[in-house]
Design brief:
Chain A has helices at residues 34-48, 58-63, 82-94, 107-116, 144-151, 168-178, 181-194, 200-210, and strands spanning 4-6, 9-11, 16-19, 24-27, 53-56, 72-77, 97-99, 124-128, 131-140, 154-158, 161-165. In chain A, the strands form 2 sheets. Chain A has a 6-stranded mixed sheet with strand order 1-2-3-4-10-11. In chain A, strands 5-6-9-8-7 form a 5-stranded mixed sheet, sandwiched between helices. Chain A has 8 helices and 11 strands. In chain A, a hairpin with a 2-residue loop joins strand 8 and strand 9 (131-140). Chain B has helices at 3-32, 34-47, 57-78. The longest helix of chain B is centred in the first third of the chain and has 30 residues, at 3-32. Classes of the chains: A alpha+beta (220), B mainly alpha (79). At the A-B interface, strand 9 and helix 7 of A face helix 1, helix 2 and helix 3 of B.
């Protein structure tokens, strides 16, 4: 498989290319799957409200062609207060999202969800239309890793829509750190697919930080 | 070979198979590109047909309760 390289743009496949300097991945698909539609609808609301976020975990692998399903689409957003969360829920409700832990149309319920879950570092779930699985698992950034993944996120242009994902090196290292067979397989998938454009030193740095064994990727 | 050894061997083989499958999956994306996404998305949409079950309010309610219960257990483990 030859990799075309034009300035900072790498072409990985006939439908995936990366502009490394601008941190943009272009993905062209004939049609979107349910997972894409849910993630993009949610991301659009976050973008409209200028809320920084990044998508992490399984959906990122599905986005790039992994043949498996996931029960949730994990999204980490920058910290926000109760007022901003209330506003976010109003917009989400208008876009057909409902809240699993509360009633999205009730401000009192939304505020309660913020106090009992988000402000304590727990995640909450949003359902899109009548689709229970997958749902959006949403939490607020509460540590340096979360903040880093938001501040250094990549934009993925899926046809004309866009979504932001955590840096690939961090995702791979984190998956190795989690360590289940499924997580390691996901890490291997991303590593093999994006190998020509990964920053090896960055990957090693994250593996060291997280105590993950980068040697697991040697030879693949 | 003892039972423990047999299980360990089985788990090791299973891990290797999953890694091999992940490599194969990534190679398919690289080799087939857009065509792979067509094949994969067709499979993903077929695999999602059990979603029809959710139209039944009882199934829907039970599923939501199960997800929330699972979340409570994982939250209590992480605190």
């Amino acid at each position: 498989m030859s990799i075309e390289h034009r300035d900072d743009i790498f072409t990985l496949t006939d439908n995936i290319s990366i502009d490394k300097s601008k941190k943009i991945i272009f993905l062209s698909k004939n049609e979107l799957v349910t997972e894409d539609n849910i993630a993009l609808a949610f991301a659009q609301v976050l973008d409209e409200l200028e809320i920084g976020y990044s998508v992490v975990a399984e959906y990122v692998t599905i986005l790039f062609g992994r043949s498996r399903r996931s029960d949730d689409i994990d999204i980490i957003a920058r910290w926000m207060d109760e007022e901003e969360f209330t506003e976010l829920c109003k917009r989400l409700k208008a876009c057909d999202f409902s809240l699993m832990q509360g009633i999205i149309s009730s401000e009192e319920s939304v505020r309660k969800v913020y106090r009992e879950y988000l402000s304590r570092g727990h995640s909450i779930r949003f359902i899109y239309r009548d689709i229970i699985l997958p749902n959006i698992e949403f939490k607020l950034a509460s540590n340096l890793l979360h903040s880093y993944s938001i501040e250094n996120s990549y934009t993925v242009m899926i046809n004309k829509d866009r979504i932001r994902i955590a840096p690939l090196e961090l995702q791979i290292a984190y998956k190795l750190h989690l360590g289940s067979d499924k997580d390691i397989a996901d890490a291997v998938f991303l590593y093999v697919l994006f190998k020509p454009v990964l920053e090896q030193k960055e990957l090693e740095r994250w593996c060291k930080e997280l105590g993950a064994d980068v040697n697991m990727l040697k030879g693949v | 070979m003892g039972l423990k050894k047999l299980i360990e061997e089985d788990l090791r083989r299973n891990s290797e198979d999953m890694i091999r499958e992940a490599i194969w999956n990534a190679e398919m994306v690289k080799k087939l590109g857009r065509k792979w996404f067509e094949i994969r998305d067709r499979w993903l949409n077929e695999a999602s047909k059990d979603r029809e079950l959710w139209r039944d309010p009882r199934v829907r309610e039970a599923l939501i309760r199960a997800i929330l219960a699972k979340d409570r257990i994982s939250a209590s483990k992480t605190i």
